[in-house]
């Protein structure tokens, strides 16, 4: 395994050697397809200035490849039973900081900041567990760390929502939340056969380029996301009704807010662009 072979046969042997069994409660599906791994690493585009944060390293397949290219890798793993196998696989990798913890309970900024220098290229790379994809992703995106890009593997339907454009059936809170923080692109679809054990659905790798954020920025981002959540709280209702319900205000007040933003109260949330949501947020409280 020193050479980084995580194909089906080598992975099965590694699991046998360390007595590891994939745990459903952690959403563990270990990547065994070298082409998929190479695609992720190429998208991360790490070099000797890169500090990479990885959540859920599993058996260390991606971790090793990141460590081969990046100056520093910080890997957070929740499953303590993987300590022996990761210790073996990553032995001698002095540029890997392995932390066993629940990333949603870790102060990510405090963990990563000591490793960062002003000229560093900070990236996030992960094969995210399906059951906590959104909380983990937003924990990183919403941090104050100087994130330049994120390359994440997620369930295909989640990827579809992340890249969805206004007017589509998949467009919603997740779409706006991710796209507000960077240009989002679905890179490629990953079949179940790329994993051991195989999941019941397809996955996809998504790139979020945080250096290409939308020009329209909210003065108060908390208010911005409050409006977004309220607008999508009842998808089949008009924006007037959705905001009245989601913000807890009279319909007349929500209609006035919408008109001040230059929008039609009868429009639905899924038709609005990020710029539209920014204008709505700017009108709140005025």
What's a concise summary of this model?
The chain is of the alpha/beta class. The chain has helices at 8-18, 34-44, 61-69, 83-89, 108-112, 133-141, 156-163, 173-179, 221-231, 239-247, 251-260, 274-283; strands at 30-31, 50-55, 72-77, 96-100, 121-127, 147-155, 183-190, 195-196, 203-209.
Describe this structure in words.
It is a single chain. The chain has helices at residues 8-18, 34-44, 61-69, 83-89, 108-112, 133-141, 156-163, 173-179, 221-231, 239-247, 251-260, 274-283; strands at 30-31, 50-55, 72-77, 96-100, 121-127, 147-155, 183-190, 195-196, 203-209. With 286 residues, it is α/β, with parallel strands linked by helices. Helix content is 37%, strand content 18%. Strands 4-3-2-5-6-9-7 form a seven-stranded mixed beta sheet, with helices on both faces. The protein has two domains: 8-209, 3-Layer(aba) Sandwich (Rossmann fold), CATH 3.40.50.150; 221-283, Helicase, Ruva Protein, domain 3. The N and C termini lie far apart (61 Å). The chain is elongated and about 65 Å long. The longest helix has 11 residues, at 8-18.
SSE layout and pairing:
Layout: H1 8-18, E1 30-31, H2 34-44, E2 50-55, H3 61-69, E3 72-77, H4 83-89, E4 96-100, H5 108-112, E5 121-127, H6 133-141, E6 147-155, H7 156-163, H8 173-179, E7 183-190, E8 195-196, E9 203-209, H9 221-231, H10 239-247, H11 251-260, H12 274-283
Parallel strand pairs: 2-3, 2-5, 3-4, 5-6
Antiparallel strand pairs: 1-8, 6-9, 7-9
Catalytic activity: adenosine(1518)/adenosine(1519) in 16S rRNA + 4 S-adenosyl-L-methionine = N(6)-dimethyladenosine(1518)/N(6)-dimethyladenosine(1519) in 16S rRNA + 4 S-adenosyl-L-homocysteine + 4 H(+)
GO molecular function, one term: 16S rRNA (adenine(1518)-N(6)/adenine(1519)-N(6))-dimethyltransferase activity
EC number: 2.1.1.182
